[in-house]
Write a structure and sequence with these properties.
Number of strands: 4
Order of helices and strands: HHHEEHHEE
Strand order of the largest sheet: 1-2
Length: 158
């Protein structure tokens, strides 16, 4: 979770963490967020290892843990709107899209890519993206957020 494959890799991961992580951290608190993040990362690694047990390529990056943050965000803030860059022909529009749609689409793409990677398990496909770490982290984040989140009472966090 703490080693990356280059500057673009870490910048991409930190961008997603910056966009979605602060709200999840607000919901959990600092210590619970740290525990949550680490559990999602370890769980994502286990899912990836289980579904890619023949691979000898090491996995690097925080995307499994960050996928857990995305899963928690999807459960906690489904009606929140995410500013999204959308290319329409030669123009780029900035559109607010519901988080449930953005994250649901992201999860579907990870799942379909992971399924395709299992169907084409060749040595040429051995490296690349840990799709199942993304899927596993997302699902683990969805499951853990309810267990670790502080309960809301009278509109204030306890």
């Amino acid at each position: 979770m703490f080693i990356h494959g280059g500057w673009l890799h870490i910048i991409g991961n930190m961008w997603y963490l910056w966009i979605f992580g602060d709200n999840v951290e607000d919901r959990l608190g600092h210590i619970r967020f740290l525990i949550f993040y680490l559990l999602c990362g370890v769980g994502a690694g286990i899912v990836h290892t289980f579904l890619n047990s023949a691979s000898v390529v090491p996995s690097v990056g925080a995307s499994g843990a960050i996928a857990g943050v995305l899963g928690a965000y999807a459960i906690s803030y489904p009606t929140a709107r995410v500013l999204t860059l959308v290319p329409i022909l030669f123009f780029i529009q900035i559109i607010e899209i519901p988080a449930a749609f953005v994250l649901g689409f992201w999860f579907l793409m990870q799942f379909l890519s992971g399924t395709a990677s299992l169907a084409v398990a060749t040595s040429a496909n051995a490296g690349g993206v840990a799709w199942w770490a993304h899927v596993g982290g997302f699902v683990i984040g969805m499951l853990l957020i309810g267990r670790l989140a502080r309960r809301l009472r009278y509109g204030y966090r306890n």
